[in-house]
Design a protein that fits this description.
- The protein is built from eleven helices and 13 strands.
- It has an eight-stranded parallel barrel with strand order 1-2-3-5-8-9-10-13, surrounded by four helices. Strands 6-7 form a two-stranded antiparallel sheet. A two-stranded parallel sheet has the order 11-12.
- The two termini are 37 Å apart.
- Helix 2 (68-78) runs parallel beside helix 3 (96-109).
- It has helices spanning 30-47, 68-78, 96-109, 124-129, 137-152, 188-197, 209-218, 240-261, 276-282, 290-303, 321-344; strands spanning 14-19, 51-54, 83-86, 89-90, 114-119, 159-160, 165-166, 181-184, 200-204, 228-232, 234-236, 286-288, 307-313.
Amino acid sequence: MTGTRETPARTGPAVGLWYDFRNPDPERPFGAFYGEVLDQVAWAEQKGIDSVWLTEHHFCDDGYSPSPFVLASAIAQRTARMRIGTNLIVSPLHDPVRLAEDSATLSLLSGGRFDLGVGQGYWAREFEAFGRKITQRPSLLEEGVELIRRAWSGSAAGFEGRRYRLPPLPVTPAPETPPQLLVGAMAGPAIERAARIADGFLSTQNTHHASYLDAVERTGGSRADARIYAGQWTIVADDPEREWARIGHHALYQLNEYISWGAFGPPDQVPRFTDPAQIVEAGAYRLMDAPAAVDHLAGLLRETPQIRDVHFWAMLPGEPVDSGSERIAYLADKVVPALRERLAA
């Protein structure tokens, strides 16, 4: 049943989970894996987790999710309270009318719990495969956002831009609760664009918050009203060093794959990590137990009250689902209540 009951009042931002559905284990069938993860999401909601975020890539050997909207629909049917968002959809690869239609449908199915997060992308292989020019990704993103908003409004005025056109036809059904349209970015010009066109900012590793807020002011927005949705690269466990010794090789795979795709700059200019210890030394992942996580998050949220959501990887690529569930339970039982109490005080 699709739930529409009100979200309980809480102190501070939402605490959520981030999923990429990567499955590099050849012995684990994808169908069973999807089922386990959906069970985990429904259970996490009962544990008090507030949000779930889905991300997208294509043509990956490990099955990195190419269909976040389908997964979001399944999650909407399994949950009643969680907000569901994308962090993020590579919007230049898609027809923006279809993004608008799918997002509107998800909003209707979920009782208004869906938010659309998009970004301009970076992986040349995806752009080539979809027949897009990677050099046009800024204008593809910006025009796409404009067209999505127009589609959600129910306007039949049509659209004519450099990259897209829509004849004078309404896009129906319009969402009863228009999703927030969030934009992720890491480079300076992309952050400036996000500040200008988005309802909120999808951040990575808590970097660029100050840059985004400065850009909001420069583009005529209100710093106080800005919204940030912060993806965390942090392992929170009772004994985080022991946990890292157990799962760090999964993070090594995760980050080196991102580097090879160009996520952090030209792949031939960004060195790969050689072992899990190097990842922690570089600050690409942080290791914390519950008291340290509460201290860190409380400080982060007081310093940047514009943060509306912090979300953590539910599991690393190749890690058993039950292993990720142990950390989710620790987050829900030991971190979230203490953080709420700290923020309320």
